[in-house]
Amino acid sequence: MFVAVRAISWSPTTIPIVLRVDFLKPKDWVAYVDTIKLKGYPNLVLSIQPFGFGADFRDLVGSTEFADVVFQLDDGSLFPAHKAILAARSKYFRTMFTGGMQESTAKEVRLQWVSKEVFHILMVYLYSATADCEENMVLQVFEIADRYWLQRPRDFAEKKVQVHVERGQRV
To answer: If both were cysteines, with which of 25, 41, 74, 132 could 1 make a disulfide (CB 3.0 to 4.6 Å apart)?
Structure first.
């Protein structure tokens, strides 16, 4: 999982602890964390959950509450969203909503060549700065992230493809 949050917290029932992870430089570092062991706690299962604004905004992904735009995807499904969040997190969407194009005033915007599953992954990233995807969706995430000028999810997908190629695996 790619996590672009500044802090990850965890609190066991007996000892409150905050684990802080900072990614400052270089910007292209990618960390894969699947296990964290704490000295003195050999049987401890650590659950990593983002918290703060990202976690709060993640609850808004696909929510109709306060949504002011709906995206119609290739399969005909509708995906509600919030222009302010998308414009704040993406130059592509900022341009779409402020550039004087018909999408800037439209309540429904049609997007081509994107599936509901991949769009959901990108929306989770835009709302919470976290992203994860199944192995069979990596190339689709790369393509759509590249199309919508989203560098971090694009780099994440590219790194996953690179790891597969280095291991001699098919993507």
So the answer is: 132
Q: Which of 26-33's residues contact partners 24+ apart within 8 Å by CB, and which partners?
A: 28/155, 30/2, 30/155, 30/156, 30/159, 31/3, 32/1, 33/1, 33/3
pLDDT digits (tens, 9 = 90+) for 53-97: 666 788 889 999 999 999 999 889 999 999 999 999 999 999 999
- Residue 150's alpha-carbon distances to 66, 129, 139, 170, in angstroms, are 24, 11, 14, 24
**DSSP type of residue 94:** H
- The rounded distance, in Å, linking the Cα atoms of 116 and 71 is 10
36 backbone φψ class: left, alpha, beta (φ>0; ψ -120 to 50):
beta
From the list 18, 9, 99, 4, the residue with the least C-alpha distance to 49 is 9
Residue 97 pLDDT: 94
User: What CA–CA distance (Å, rounded) separates 63 from 31?
Assistant: 30
Distance CA 81, CA 144 (A): 17
